[in-house]
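One record is set out below.
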Amino acid sequence: MAVATTIDPDVLVERVRRDAERAVWRARNGIKNITGLGRPSVAPTPYDVEWQHDKVRLIRYRKPGATTTTRQPLLLVHSLVSKSYIFDLVEGNSVVEALTARGFDVYLTDWGVPDELEASNTLETYADYYLPRMVRAACRASRRVGM
């Protein structure tokens, strides 16, 4: 035998209000997402491309206004499946920004977006071909002895 439960009208009104408010926020966020409005731009730190071969690039970041660095160069290498901007997400939340602010000469691997042209690449292609060339290019650009 089922027992009928009663819901306090004030509780019901509050639930409906809360659900309607959430629906409005979801709709607003969905429209912003679809149109691209309100998205922060990723990779805001200025950079130069120091070396490039095929789709693979070596990016060098510089602290705006700085002409020299005070520390060793750093080469940030991320996984092949990550995007290069993972180290430079948004202003105020960026590893690159923090390192350049401390005077480091920061370099980053950008593996590019693979397609059928890279189908024959193996892990060795990236580790034994591209990576040593990027290290040498970073050393040359930083005027330090390379490999």
User: Anything to note?
Assistant: The chain has a mean pLDDT of 86. The two ends are 82 Å apart (CA to CA). The beta strands are 47-53, 56-61, 73-76, 88-90, 93-94, 105-110.
